[in-house]
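Hypothesis: this fold can be encoded by more than one sequence.
Test: take the structure tokens below, design a sequence, compare later.
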């Protein structure tokens, strides 16, 4: 009888440990997907089941990845909703992690640094060609890298399977989050061209993510291929996998007084713009198309406005209650006011607005900044804004 009672008491404790022991301090997933890290931790789980779970994981909309230097934390938003959060370790003072607006430009499951003595960088997601990336690594609880963003191993794996090239990455001094914004100066799809093509594009996007996770190409650097190259397997793959329309990116620079447009990392065109009070700063803002709420409504937009002040120290971000229990910091209350103020000062020629609007799809973005084109912006990149 005593042994039976002990067994009942021990099993739940062991199960709880198996589920939660590997979660990072901020680590959790929610939303439409169940908390799925623990599904991959059972020792007797079959590899086929793990592969199916990874293949089923796909975003519901545009992904936005935010790293807060002060909080040493990463937050992942899917279609504007927070779905994941975890601890990170960013660059030390001598090798700081750059602040700014980036995107995933290449991915490798296994990579070694060509700068720092072949240091391992598993589940690497590169955001600059000069060597900054997100990857699995050791997290000592404070900044410790040479500029990269180190992630918990389990988190790095999940994130690697969830993202694709072009996923937006924002590195901010303090935590920020996307908020919805409505402004008549934001681009909208022309009503005459907005029929069934938009849902089809979104469906193709999710199908492509699933196919990429379920059937990765065999080449060592296969993860760096364009998303448009992924096709369904089988003899009828050309008919089964319609070509996906890639989102566009628009960059408005106060410094240059110009607007630039890219699609799938490829430059399309640029145009002069008029900015009221050009000597006054606009700030740096990232506007993103979230998709239409219904067929008759226009696209929904979100905005994230970058704080310009220097980051708090990681120690200052940890508030404590009586009893010395640390409290997880929460993002500052966000508002679309700064984004609206910046948009209201920008005049874009009507013909340029029309050219951009007809290419608009969910995931498209508009970046407004006081800075010019960063040196990192180039071949096979989206616009990269490094905030000096």
């Amino acid at each position: 009888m005593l042994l039976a009672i002990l067994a009942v008491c021990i099993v739940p404790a062991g199960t709880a440990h198996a589920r939660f022991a590997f979660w990072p301090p901020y680590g959790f997933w929610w939303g439409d997907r169940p908390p799925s890290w623990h599904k991959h931790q059972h020792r007797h789980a079959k590899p086929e089941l793990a592969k199916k779970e990874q293949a089923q994981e796909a975003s519901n909309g545009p992904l936005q990845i935010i790293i807060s230097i002060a909080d040493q934390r990463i937050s992942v938003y899917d279609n504007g909703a927070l779905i994941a959060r975890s601890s990170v370790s960013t660059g030390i003072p001598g090798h700081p992690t750059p602040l700014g607006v980036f995107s995933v430009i290449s991915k490798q499951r296994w990579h070694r640094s060509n700068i720092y003595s072949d240091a391992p960088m598993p589940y690497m997601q590169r955001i600059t060609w000069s060597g900054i990336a997100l990857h699995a690594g050791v997290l000592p609880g404070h900044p410790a890298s040479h500029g990269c963003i180190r992630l918990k191993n389990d988190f790095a794996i999940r994130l690697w399977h969830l993202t694709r090239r072009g996923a937006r990455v924002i590195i901010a001094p303090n935590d920020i989050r996307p908020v919805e914004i409505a402004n008549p100066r934001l681009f909208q799809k022309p009503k005459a061209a907005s029929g069934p093509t938009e849902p089809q594009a979104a469906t193709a996007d999710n199908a492509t993510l699933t196919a990429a996770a379920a059937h990765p190409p065999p080449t060592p650097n296969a993860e760096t291929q364009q998303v448009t190259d992924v096709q369904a397997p089988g003899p009828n793959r050309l008919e089964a996998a319609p070509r996906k329309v890639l989102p566009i990116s628009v960059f408005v620079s106060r410094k240059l007084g110009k607007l630039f447009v890219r699609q799938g990392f490829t430059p399309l065109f640029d145009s002069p713009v008029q900015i009221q009070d050009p000597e006054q700063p606009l700030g740096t803002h990232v506007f993103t198309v979230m998709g239409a709420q219904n067929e008759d409504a226009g696209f929904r937009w979100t905005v994230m406005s970058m704080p310009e002040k220097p980051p708090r120290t990681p120690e200052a971000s940890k508030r404590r209650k009586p009893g010395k229990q640390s409290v997880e910091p929460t993002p500052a209350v966000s508002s679309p006011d700064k984004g609206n103020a910046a948009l209201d000062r920008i005049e874009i020629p009507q013909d340029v607005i029309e050219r951009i609007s007809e290419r608009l799809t969910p995931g498209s973005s508009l970046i407004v900044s006081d800075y010019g084109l960063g040196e990192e912006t180039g071949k096979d990149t989206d616009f990269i804004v490094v905030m000096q």
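Residues 2 and 14 are 18 Å apart (CA to CA). The mean pLDDT is 75.
Hypothesis status: open.
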